[in-house]
Design brief:
Helix content is 59%, strand content 0%. The protein has 99 residues and is mostly helical. It is rod-shaped, with a radius of gyration of 26 Å.
Length: 99
């Protein structure tokens, strides 16, 4: 099975953060509707959508940075005789010394 790569999935994580913080998008949409209906300034709708996007981007970058700070798990020797490779079970057959 392939190991997950933490460097992948940034865009998917960003879209997930946008979906989880959809209230800023609702606010931006309401402000845009109010712009056309009551003729308020359109900058409020743009500001709400910019806050929505920047909040999601900052949270995604923070999560990505935190994921990169974790220590990698050390490799362990496979002790299971049913799934171990021959060199793990019989190190002298492959020309290696016994541990």
């Amino acid at each position: 099975m392939r190991k997950p790569d933490p460097s992948r999935g940034f865009f998917l994580c960003f879209l997930t953060n946008l979906a989880l913080h959809f209230w800023w998008g609702v606010a931006a949409l309401l402000l845009l509707i109010l712009h056309f209906w009551l003729d308020i300034h359109w900058g409020f709708a743009w500001a709400a959508s910019a806050i929505w996007g920047m909040e999601a981007l900052v949270l995604t970058l923070l999560i990505s940075w935190g994921n990169g700070c974790s220590r990698p798990t050390p490799e362990k020797k496979n002790q299971n005789p049913y799934s171990a490779k021959n060199k793990d079970l019989f190190p002298t057959e492959q020309g290696e010394d016994k541990p």
